[in-house]
Amino acid sequence: MARSRQSTLRRASAVAAVALAAALSGCSVTNQITSQLEYDASDGVGAALGDVSAENLLLVAAAAGEPGALQGALSNAGDHAALVELSTADDSTTVRVPAGATVLLGGSEGEEVLLVTPDAPGATTDLTVATSAAGQETLPVPVLDGTLPEYTDLVPEPEASPES
Asked: I need a surface site. Which of 5, 101, 111, 113 has the fewest CB within 10 A?
């Protein structure tokens, strides 16, 4: 009889262990693993246009109508260089992104890209990102000023008005 009781306890323990393992792993069955999702990890926004992706884009400017320093990165996963046109309502520029490369924009190590910023800091402004191969996408890009210490040195000097 003791043997039968031990056998029953072992079976009950095994069933309990299987039930506990199923309960603990159930979250990943019913919920998507969010660490595997692409997302904007900082203050900026991003988009994907074919082989080209724009990451963490934001403008740093002193005021509306002033030059804004575009911050972020453009990456090209394709086999050929891409020309990426970046434009606001008031200005545009083109950046060449080599095949298989990432071009940093702004900061202390990136390419300087200045665009006249139609909206004041604290708002968003429409920035159109376009490539000839994949079309265009318009993003609501945040406009920031030098209030936060990490952006203080990135605010471009206002353009001097021409003297008459």
From this structure: 5
List the structure tokens of 34: 């969010």
Q: Within 13 Å and on the Cβ side, how many CA atoms surround 20?
A: 6
Q: Which residue has the higher pLDDT, 24 or 98?
A: 98
Q: What is the pLDDT of residue 164?
A: 45
H or E segment and range at residue 129? strand 124-131
CA distances from residue 42 to 56, 72, 77, 123, 147 in whole angstroms, order as listed: 7, 10, 22, 16, 16
In this predicted model, what pLDDT tens digit does every residue of 95-142 receive, in sequence order? Answer: 999 999 999 999 989 999 999 999 999 999 999 999 999 999 999 999
**What are the extents of the domains in the chain?**
2-35, 45-154
Q: In the CATH scheme, what is the code of domain 45-154? A: 2.60.40
